[in-house]
Amino acid sequence: MSLTESEQLAAALRRDFPNVTASADRAWSRAPAVRVIDCVLSLHRDYDEFVVPRLEAFERRFPAVETILQLRALINSYRSPAAFANDALNYNDPSRAALLRAVVEYLVRTALVAQGPELEQLKAWAEHARPQDYLTLRIPGFALAGFQYLRMLFGANTTKPDVHISRYVAHAVGHSVSDVQALLLLEDAGRLAGLRLRDIDTTIWENTARDHHGGTV
User: Fold this and answer.
1) Is 140 helix (H, G, I), strand (E, B) or coil?
2) What residue spans define the domains of the chain?
3) Helix (H) or strand (E) holding 31
4) Quick count: other Cβ atoms within 10 Å of Cβ 209?
């Protein structure tokens, strides 16, 4: 009997990554404000060479800016989001700066609507959001992979179908796949392999994108 594509992918995961473990990368434990910056800066940019140095420089310069609300206030203290990005992130890209502010405003409006610590509210949002929710944001340049990475940064057990994840899935099943197909196949394969979806994602990424020095979302 021939294997389904989900079974093929599950077999590939067991073969290629026999020791899937939770990632210890600092990305998952930085302050909420820095995680949002991480999410937006990492879209189509090299993570270790471009994103990480800017995150660390921001943390050194603005150690008191930890929450989403504090980040929002800091962005609004500049004459424009582009001026903020240029000065605070050493990043001259007005469209990406506008995207960052839009994501911050989305989280304030959608996730920070209850009482309690901000990080707990963000975790609750991440766990209850669904991949298709990205369609309601209507933020230019912020598609499924970016939205899923944002959820993962705040604790959701899911995957982001970026170029590296989709490429791995396509290789395992023998044909190209869309972002949505990659996501659905990994969800099924994770269940079949008895592996946590978030850990599959980070393991694939750290063993493909990072090993080849080209990690982007």
Assistant:
1) coil
2) 5-24+159-208, 26-153
3) none
4) 22
Task: Work out the number of other CB atoms within 10 angstroms of the CB of residue 38.
Answer: 23
Is the sign of the CA dihedral 164, 168, 169, 174 positive or negative?
A: positive
How many of the other CB atoms lie within 10 Å of CB of 87?
11
> What type of residue is 146?
G
Helix locations, the chain, DSSP H: 5-16, 32-41, 52-61, 68-76, 81-88, 94-110, 118-128, 134-137, 144-153, 163-173, 179-193, 197-208
Query: What digits encode the pLDDT tens for the residues 158-182?
Result: 998 888 899 999 999 999 999 889 9
Length of the chain equals 217
Range of weakest confidence among 94-98, 103-107, 206-210: 206-210
- CA 100/CA 82 separation, integer angstroms: 10
Distance CA 84, CA 97 (A): 8
